[in-house]
Every structure is written in C-alpha cells, then in structure tokens.
C-alpha cells in the first residue's frame, strides 16, 4: 500500500526543479513524511493523496495554464526575479537578523533601567 504512495512522490521529487535560493525548503515536507521510504506507514491516505495531487498541480503549472495572466506583474509591481530574491533563504535569514536587532533595540528602549545603569553595576 505504501509503495503505491512512495513511488509517485519520489518521481515527483525527482522531476521538481531545484531552486538553489531556497536551501532546505524545497519539498522538505515530502522527504520528512517518507523518512522510512517504502516502509513508511501512511496514517491518512486521503490527506496523502490530496498532498500529492496539490504538488502535482503545482509542478505541472495547472493553475498557470488554467488562469493565464495578461501581464507578469503583481499588486506590488515587483517582478518575478525580485520576488525570487526576496523569498530566497539568504534574504529571509537577513530579515530575521534585522528583526532580532530591532527587537533588541525596543527591549533596551523600554527596559526598566537605562543603558548607563548597565555600566555602573
């Protein structure tokens, strides 16, 4: 039974184009779901089938062909290349670091003791 799920997922993963800008985020959920290969037990066959069908539609650009766009733009006006840069793993990591530094600044600003008191202690 599991082999009937494992092999189509494996074939889909092999066909899926690798996006080097998204290290660790390309089909990771699928690989994690089938850690034991063909010996993996599928607890929810309907959910597994639904996930496979969704990934297959994405892979074949089903919705891109079903609902063609008159122009390659978005509500923000950014291009596809700009979105790829923004959604890359490196950019997302940089944004996390920026958020951390912003959070630190806010903590320091609203902490009960001022920065000069830190040096006195």
From TrEMBL:
PANTHER family: UBIQUINOL-CYTOCHROME-C REDUCTASE COMPLEX ASSEMBLY FACTOR 2. It comes from the Eukaryota. It is found in: Mitochondrion matrix, Mitochondrion nucleoid. InterPro entries: UQCC2. It comes from Mandrillus leucophaeus. It holds the Pfam family UQCC2_CBP6. GO terms for biological process: mitochondrial respiratory chain complex III assembly. Keywords: Mitochondrion, Mitochondrion nucleoid, Transit peptide. One of its GO terms (cellular component) is mitochondrial nucleoid. This is Mitochondrial nucleoid factor 1.
